[in-house]
Design a protein that fits this description.
Length: about 425
């Protein structure tokens, strides 16, 4: 493993920034240095100090005047939906029946799965995202393909084979036993292999029979260290259908509660229309609500009330995500731009430091991986993004009037996309420049 020294304007968060002038919530170095060795950050701080520690003979990669941040994390994506992103005119249940299920049935073909997994991870790295929490298709081979590609890139990714045994076409269904057996085999093969982590993945209550929900609960009990991911309270028709399918339940969240699926490593996509009881149940169990703004706007699902969820007496842990292909952009910068607008429609604001906290440390904490990624702390994995706030003519022009770091971050979020991502490092290795255009 070769050592390297990065130089640039480094920014990393220590905790949630209460306000725009809450300077002790982050660490910013105008001339910062990061010493990387063996895929980890060995030293971080002012460049002069880090360079002294590094000693002679270590080459400096000079990223000045760009910003160096921890790589972004995306807490909810659907790998098999790359070829249905930007499909017109549907709400959630129609979207699934018309576009998603036919598309995901193509993943019976393992070669197709491998091709899309490769292109998906390339795209994520181009956008500065170094960790995703991914839904593969129902087919075991789609998860194998994803993990193989992820492992080859040495990325820290969390993923699972979707479990679904009803209310969808034959080509995307498993059975309670097959879903359990395939998940078990994938866990044995991939969880903890290199940086790979497995997530138990029942798609949602509508496409899993009570028997399959029991099996998902059994997997969670047998593997309490694993993540569990599913969808919750995205759309009114979805909520009503769930109540019909589980007539004994108090509400949608109660279905997952009943099968033992709540907990600190449980990730619930959307959570838009929760009752107070449901929000309390998520809070008390430490479960995570995943905010997917571009998807929620695109499918007309509703407005996630980020600030109210944070401030309530029993607050929710929150992660942010693209939810591609229901989401409309692979970029977490574009995602937080839309997130800002959703929060504005709820009469609130999310300041730029809070936003970049969410993209990095905030998501890492929500995913319980902040000891490994999401900061520039010494001893963590060197997953890093380099951002250029002058990446386009319009950004360059706007930068002429930018005076503060907060303004620069807000410009990056509002106008930035993959063009603003100059380089990405995965475990210390340059990853964006390594992808063929
Ligand atoms: Zn989703």
């Amino acid at each position: 493993m070769t050592s390297k020294l990065l130089r640039g304007r480094t920014l990393s968060f220590l905790r949630w920034p209460e306000a725009i002038d809450d300077h002790s919530a982050w660490r910013y170095e105008e001339d910062g240095g990061l010493l990387i060795d063996g895929g980890k950050i060995i030293a971080a701080g002012p460049y002069a100090e880090v360079a002294r520690k590094a000693g002679a003979g270590i080459g400096t990669i000079d990223h000045r005047p760009h910003l160096i941040l921890p790589g972004f994390l995306d807490a909810h994506v659907h790998v098999p939906q790359m070829q249905i992103i930007a499909s017109y005119g549907a709400e959630l249940l129609d979207w699934l029946n018309k576009y998603t299920f036919p598309e995901e049935s193509k993943f019976q073909n393992a070669q197709h799965g491998r091709r899309i997994a490769r292109l998906f991870l390339d795209e994520m790295l181009r956008q500065g995202t170094t960790t995703v929490v991914a839904y593969c298709s129902v087919h075991k081979s789609s998860a194998e393909a994803f993990f193989a590609e992820s492992h080859e890139r040495n990325m820290l990714n969390i993923a699972g084979k979707v479990m679904m045994d009803r209310n969808a076409p034959e080509g995307v269904l498993d059975t309670p036993q097959a879903g359990y057996d395939d998940s078990k085999a994938l866990i044995a093969e991939w969880h903890g292999k290199g940086r790979q982590l497995y997530a138990i993945t029942p798609r949602f209550a509508i496409t899993s029979s009570p028997k399959q929900m029991e099996m998902a609960g059994a997997l969670c009990r047998e593997h309490p260290d694993l993540h569990m991911q599913t969808h919750l309270s995205e759309n009114h028709a979805e909520i009503a259908f769930t109540q019909e399918l589980y007539p004994w339940s108090r509400d949608y969240t109660d279905v997952y509660e009943h099968y033992g699926l709540l907990g600190r490593k449980s990730l619930f996509g959307h959570c838009i229309h929760l009752s107070e009881r449901e929000a309390d149940a998520l809070s008390q169990s430490g479960s995570v609500a995943v905010f997917c703004p571009t998807s929620n706007l695109f499918l007309g699902s509703g407005l996630f009330d980020y600030q109210r969820y944070r401030r309530r007496e029993k607050p929710l842990r929150i992660a942010a995500a693209t939810d591609v292909g229901g989401g409309t952009n692979y970029s977490m910068l574009r995602t937080m731009d839309e997130g800002y607008k959703v929060i504005a429609l709820n009469g609130e604001k999310l300041n730029p430091f809070q936003s970049f906290w969410q993209l990095t440390r905030g998501n890492a904490e929500a995913l319980s991986v902040a000891d490994k990624v999401g900061t520039l702390d010494e001893g963590t994995d060197a997953d890093i993004v380099v951002l250029d706030a002058r990446a386009t003519p319009a950004m360059r022009l706007r930068m002429e009037t930018v005076e503060t770091l907060a303004e620069e971050l807000f410009l990056l979020q509002t106008l930035g996309d993959d063009r603003a991502v100059r380089e990405v490092y995965v475990a210390g290795r340059p990853a964006k420049s390594a992808i063929a255009a």
